[in-house]
Amino acid sequence: MASLDHFEKANQRGEELRARVPRAVAVRYDRTTGRIVLHLSSKLIVSFSPDDVEGLKGARPSQLGRIEISPSGFGIHFPDVDADLYVPGLLEGFLGSKTWMASRLGRIGGQSTSKAKKAASRANGSLGGRPKRAKKTEAKERARPGGRARTRASAPQV
Which of 51, 72, 88, 119 has its CA 20 to 30 A from that of 97? Predict the structure, then answer.
């Protein structure tokens, strides 16, 4: 069971966070721009596309109209899609879980073009490109236990 000391320390950490990090004071979905507009206690206004946030990607505008701010101001809740955002994480650039962010970064990296990437692609192409896929029969032979394929002679006769 938690002691009074634990509660006091938690309250102290909360006060320190409130002193350091801006809180949400207002939030709305702007249908004109298709963005979430977040007003912070520091007078800063931040907007972002719902498609850039885990849990909001693909949400319809009608699902983004109702947004709730937590009593602390550190959380934003979208009840119609059951999604939550942590304001300090949002301000640090975390728009989702580590796995989700990694998949987004990987997709962006795969779409990037550079002189080095083009040169590597040309070099790979001059070597014959990607290796050809193995024929289906060869793949089946490799997949069989013992690595041997049945031939007509070794197949059981019916």
Answer: 72
Cα separations in angstroms, 99 against 15, 69, 82: 31, 26, 19
Which residues, including other chains, have CB under 8 Å from residue 18's CB and lie 6 or more apart?
72
Residue pLDDT tens, the chain, 158 long: 678 888 888 888 877 777 778 899 999 999 999 999 999 998 989 899 998 888 898 899 999 999 999 998 999 999 999 999 988 888 777 555 556 556 655 655 555 667 877 777 777 777 776 667 776 655 555 555 555 544 444 445 54
Domain 22-104, architecture per CATH? 2-Layer Sandwich (3.30)
